[in-house]
Design goal:
By secondary structure, the protein is α/β, with parallel strands linked by helices. It has 12 helices and 23 strands. The protein has helices at residues 9-20, 34-43, 56-63, 115-129, 146-159, 171-180, 190-196, 217-223, 300-306, 346-353, 389-403, 429-439, and strands at residues 2-3, 25-27, 49-51, 69-71, 95-100, 110-114, 136-139, 162-165, 185-187, 209-212, 227-232, 239-242, 256-257, 262-267, 278-285, 295-296, 313-321, 327-332, 336-339, 342-345, 359-369, 373-382, 412-415.
Length: 441
């Protein structure tokens, strides 16, 4: 059954009812087009769509005449039986959910989770986050995504805590909601933290912890809220790398390997540098159907490419392992540029540009170039204190020339008012690349 809804209580009711029946919840991105939703429904062989009135027309266009569409804010489906004794016995390894990855150059893949995956994610996430029955987890990330489902909802319910559900992130409503409901925990993303940096911080909030993608001394000092960092994917169910609730803080780092997972790097170079760090593509191994997803829906080719015969999953993420065992995120493998034969991580350039006064957000992508294959182009959103566009561009290029090798310096800086967004407000770099490619056609 497909649940195509924004964040609302009916989503949670549908989710748990479906899985109690032993059926499979297919959670879909509410920003999808008719064509994309139609693909999800077909790929997952969906037999019913549970939605809301505002999305009903969209769901009916995508589902066609043969799939019932029920807006749960207006009517309830009729089950064949509501007797508790009629509920089927559910095996822990039975499929329980499907989430579609965002996809870049091809159709999204359906990631299948078992009943055991949900329970593993709940228990382990709650332990990583140190949640208790007294916690109130402010949840604004979309419920169709792993982060909200496992890091927030399932983890909190496992601990016996409460979930404060927001329809979406709102810079103006975040603090009022947090204060009035006495939120103690929240899973944060870069976009949200950066937005809140421009707001005053109430002294009467109750937050005792935030979960973030990377440790930042600036964030902790500004908000006065302790933070843990984590890394995970839909395929890993929960955090495969995590820092400690109490203990050492290492700015810019993510953490150490989490219990229940094995990690290794397919390294680029031998150890070197001041801390003998090594960089490479991260691979992770766990138990399929428990600590790792069951696999990709009806796609053995993708499964064989992603998991090797020994069970190692190729994450496509590039990490740096330091001598003390801490891991630092470098870039997505697909986010690497090939400039005149040199490999360049877009994240490396972005980290430098982000330090320049007047830069609110930056995304670096490769533009096609006849001589060098690709050249770096920086798209920048200036902040309110920024000087003229020309002054910002000049400062960015000066800092890049001072800090980076010449082939890593952007050949162009573009000042924009907004950037295209994908899931969890991540920058949709594929759209930026398409813009640059279209200009040279």
């Amino acid at each position: 059954m497909c649940v195509d809804m924004t964040n609302r209580p009916e989503f949670l009711f549908a989710w748990f009812a479906i899985q109690s029946l032993g059926a499979v919840m297919v959670a879909t991105n509410t920003r999808s087009s008719d064509d994309e939703l139609q693909y999800y429904l077909s790929k997952a062989s969906v037999r019913m769509v549970l939605t809301e009135s505002a999305r009903e027309a969209h769901a009916r266009r995508a589902s066609g005449p043969d799939i019932p569409v029920i807006p749960l804010d207006r009517e309830l489906p009729t089950w064949s039986s509501t007797a508790r004794s009629a509920y089927p016995d559910v095996d822990p390894m039975d499929p329980a959910g499907v989430q579609f990855t965002s996809g870049t150059t091809s159709r999204p893949k359906g990631v299948v989770w078992t009943q055991a995956n949900y329970l593993w994610g709940a228990k382990v996430s709650a332990a990583h986050e140190g949640l208790t029955a007294a916690d109130r987890h402010l949840t604004y990330l979309p419920l169709f995504h792993t982060n909200a489902q496992i890091y927030s909802v399932m983890a909190t319910l496992w601990a016996g805590g409460s979930v404060i559900l927001m329809p979406r992130f709102s810079t103006s409503r975040f603090w009022p909601a947090a204060v009035s409901h006495e939120a103690t925990w929240s899973s944060m993303i870069n976009f949200s933290v950066q937005a809140l940096l421009e707001r005053s911080i109430p002294h009467d909030h109750h937050f005792r912890m935030w979960g973030v993608p990377v440790l930042s001394a600036k964030w902790e000092d500004t908000f006065g809220i302790p933070m843990i960092a984590w890394w995970g994917m839909t395929e890993t169910v929960t955090h495969g790398v995590v820092s400690e609730i109490q203990g050492r803080r290492r700015p810019r780092m993510v953490g150490r390997p989490a219990t229940g997972y094995e990690l290794r790097l397919q390294t680029d170079d031998p150890p070197g540098g001041d801390d003998d760090s090594v960089t490479g593509l991260l691979e992770i191994r766990g138990r399929r159907g428990i600590s790792m997803a069951h696999g990709y829906l009806d796609d053995e080719t993708e499964n064989e490419q992603a998991w090797d015969p020994d069970g190692w999953f190729k994450t496509g993420d590039r990490m740096r392992l330091h001598a003390d065992g801490w891991l630092e995120f470098v870039s997505r493998d697909k986010d690497m540029l090939k400039v005149g034969g040199e490999n360049v991580a877009a994240a490396e350039i972005e980290r430098v540009i982000a330090t320049v006064t007047g830069v609110k957000e930056v995304a670096v992508v490769g533009a096609p170039d006849a001589m060098r294959g690709e050249i770096p182009v920086a798209f920048i959103i200036p902040d309110e204190s920024a000087a003229s566009n020309e002054a910002i561009a000049t400062a960015v290029l000066e800092e890049c020339r001072r800090t980076l090798a010449d082939f890593k310096v952007p050949r162009e800086v573009r000042l924009v008012s907004e950037l295209p967004r994908a899931t969890l407000e991540k920058v949709a770099k594929a759209q930026l690349r398409e813009t640059l490619h279209a200009e040279v056609r």
